[in-house]
Amino acid sequence: MFFEDFDSVQLKNQLSGNRFRVIYRLSGEEAEARNKATDICTEQTVEFPVRFLPSGAIREQIVGCIERFEQQNETNWLATISYADEIAAGEWTQFLNVVFGNISIKQGIQVVGIQPSQRIIEQLPGSRFGVDGIRKLVKIPMRPLLFTALKPMGLSARNLAKLAEQFAEGGIDIIKDDHGLSDQCFAPFEERVLRCAAAVHEVNARTKRNTIYVPNITSPIELFFERAVRAKELGAGGFMVTPGLVGWDALRRLAQMQLGLPIIAHPAFIGSYAINSQGISCRVLFGTLMRLAGADATIFPNYGGRFPLSQEDCREIVIASREKLGTLPAIFPCPAGGMELKNIRDMVQNYGNDMLVLIGSGLFSYSDNLIDNCRTFLEEIEHSCLPTN
Amino acid sequence: MFFEDFDSVQLKNQLSGNRFRVIYRLSGEEAEARNKATDICTEQTVEFPVRFLPSGAIREQIVGCIERFEQQNETNWLATISYADEIAAGEWTQFLNVVFGNISIKQGIQVVGIQPSQRIIEQLPGSRFGVDGIRKLVKIPMRPLLFTALKPMGLSARNLAKLAEQFAEGGIDIIKDDHGLSDQCFAPFEERVLRCAAAVHEVNARTKRNTIYVPNITSPIELFFERAVRAKELGAGGFMVTPGLVGWDALRRLAQMQLGLPIIAHPAFIGSYAINSQGISCRVLFGTLMRLAGADATIFPNYGGRFPLSQEDCREIVIASREKLGTLPAIFPCPAGGMELKNIRDMVQNYGNDMLVLIGSGLFSYSDNLIDNCRTFLEEIEHSCLPTN
């Protein structure tokens, strides 16, 4: 009655029939959970009461469709809802909106799985390097990689380069900026990247190793892509990006630009999605979304450190970093957040060799000699390493 | 012992002594809450054990400082923590990181207040139009403004323009795209904005009113600023942006570009921060942060509709949209999310005249004549309007 001039046939012809799927965990009694599933189908698409919709293609194809509904446990249900590829418009921003836009403001809903269609995956850059690409860069074919961070904030660029030099000397494979280092007056971006990259290259020339320095390029959006290009010119071996700060879409765009260096994603600012029961599961947030957006390694707060994730949460992130996802390569999970040498054996047993073991301030606690401490880290990794991948 | 070459005097000279403050609600027993406060001071800055820090300026000025610690209620404490302006580096991305980066992954912490220093406010664009600027555009000096959305998704650009025409004819002040309309093949951005803006301008010419059409420009970051410029060329009267999708920093950058049109912010995808006890309070998320980032109006899910916010949450958002925040103007709160005509009186009583009343699909439920329904909406607003601001 309101949309007499709506042409359902025309719309139908514009839709391919391909759909992507999202799995939601819904809490409550069965009837309540079923209502939530039905509500999601309209809230994430037409935002309109079905009774007022014109008949035809909008009701049949634009409104989300419950493909599956099953009990997970006493108080939770799993609903698989499919959406027409075309409503994501080939845009990562709109894809995220369909997955969890308005319903991020509703109770008792958690995104626990994303099954993008082949077309959606083709539209996204996805990870370009992944595990194999990063291993080739540092020329370490099998063991877990040694990963650390330049800190504390407040040091000068010169101080940080000195640290980088010691880390490289001690055998760290990947040295990143602490994620809080951006362009502070006491360690400006340009000077920091120049000095740290140079320090690492000098050590590499001597040791014949292939340590890379990965600066944090998270920055105001008008500088972000510029900083990536500049970092590469200055000798960076990768980029660290915090999508929660610069935007998920900035990460996606950076990956799409194919600057020829791997991207390591940092989890800051997005924790609220993961540690609350309403939100996005750790598996999807730190695994699936990071891969789709183009990260080659995903830093996550490992259990047993300073953060509250459970062993099960962490195991799921690692699974998500490797499971089949279209044609995308497996990426490196990077357990972090208060890890120490004593955690290594457990990490390797649980996660296997394909990971970056991030030990930051933990590296300072063994002796006064940072180079020695790095060597102990390497020994511990080599001792714990599994015989095969 | 690790940082012999660190020069504390040099760092001290680089710091202005100006600090910004963040208020955190911390849950638990007093001792636990105090520990959390202490932990935040390092986690958000140096990410390093204090015992290993060099003495001097890093300990004294870079590490966050607990300015105040008080009991809020039986299980909650309020800690005011200050940070040196310089660690935010003049960057909105890094400012957000200091406020809630890593601790977004920790339990029992909620950001409930932000007190930026004058310098931080000067570095940010902040709202440019605010309430007064938008009122001048639509030439409505006092009453609440009528706000609606073009939907449902699936309609063609031509269909949507027809709707826009009827809304304008009926007296709506601001007509926005539904936030899910981006650049779908069935209603492409360019054609949609062209047709809808033209339709509204034609009606305005006839009615001598000043209705504005506000398209959704949320889009991939490489297209976002382009779409803003193009939307203005095509006759848009403002921009709708979802910072959760395109990035908080894209909103900030858009405001800074001063394109001469107001920005309306949409809350999609960031709900998880607000509806969980761990996160960012509604007041800060939908109020303070939106103003600092440059929104001129903030859409929020009002209580009594389809979303779970409490009356108190909503009242706080409205307060935050108007309270003193440096020299920034008050912005329009936009109660939304399943509002109907029957909610208007209550909204006006609670929030006053300075708001955009967003009624979307509710406008379809009164009669088959959309123009008549808009007129009823206008009458209801005029009847409910308070005699003064």
Walkthrough of the structure:
Two copies of one chain form a homodimer. With 389 residues, the first copy, chain A, is of the alpha/beta class. Chain A folds into two domains: 8-123, Alpha-Beta Plaits; 130-384, TIM Barrel, CATH 3.20.20.110. Helices cover 42% and strands 17% of the residues of chain A. Chain A is built from 16 helices and 13 strands. Chain A has helices at 8-14, 30-43, 57-62, 92-100, 118-123, 130-138, 157-170, 189-207, 221-233, 243-246, 248-257, 271-275, 282-293, 311-322, 344-351, 370-384; strands spanning 19-27, 65-73, 76-84, 109-115, 145-150, 174-177, 212-214, 239-241, 263-265, 279-280, 297-301, 332-336, 356-358. In chain A, the strands form three sheets. In chain A, strands 2-3-1-4-10 form a five-stranded mixed sheet. In chain A, strands 7-6-5-13 form a four-stranded parallel sheet, with helices on both faces. A four-stranded parallel sheet of chain A has the order 8-9-11-12, with helices on one face. In chain A, strand 6 (174-177), helix 8 (189-207) and strand 7 form a beta-alpha-beta unit. In chain A, helix 13 runs parallel beside helix 14 and helix 15 (344-351) runs parallel beside helix 16 (370-384). The radius of gyration of chain A is 23 Å and the shape is elongated. The model of chain A has no long low-confidence stretch (mean pLDDT 97). At the A-B interface, helix 1, helix 3, helix 4, helix 7 and helix 10 of A face helix 1, helix 3, helix 4, helix 7 and helix 10 of B.
Provide a quick synopsis of the model.
Two copies of one chain form a homodimer. Chain A is an alpha/beta fold and 389 residues long.
